[in-house]
Give the backbone structure.
Amino acid sequence: MMKGESTVPSKELANGLPAEVIMESSYVQNGETHHHVFEEKGRVVYMNNSYYIRYEEKFTGEAAVPVTVKINPNGTVNLIRRGEFLTRLTFNSDEVTETQYKTAAGIMPIKIDTQNLKISYYDRPFAGRMSVDYALYFNGEKLGSYQIRLRFTT
C-alpha cells in the first residue's frame, strides 16, 4: 500500500469494476527468450480481503484463456489460468511453493521460487501494479526464469 491511501476499497469494487488490464510475461527457457503482452478489458473485484483481477488471454486462432490473478492480504499472489489444463501458481517471496502441473503426459510436481514480488495500488482511478520474478523447478532441475508485469486501471 502506498502512503495516504485508504485501506477499505470503495463499495463499487466489491461489486466489481471494469478495468483495462495489461499483462506482460517474459521467460527464458533453453536459452531462448519469449515475450507476450496482453492488453485486455477485464474486471477487478474486492472480495474477502483479496483483490481479484480477471481477464482473458486471446491468442490468434485459439480459444480465449480465462485468467484470474488473486492478490491476498498477506502479500502472496495466486495466478490461475483455465486453459486446456488448469494452471495454479502461488507466488510467495518468503518461501518456495509447489503446484501440480497437468500435461498430456501426466501430472508434474513443480516448485515455484519467487525471487521478487512487488504490489502497489493507486487511487482515483483505482489502479494497481504487480511485478513478480520467479523460477520453476522440476525434480531439482530449473525449467526456466520468468517475469510477470501486471497493470490494471479501473
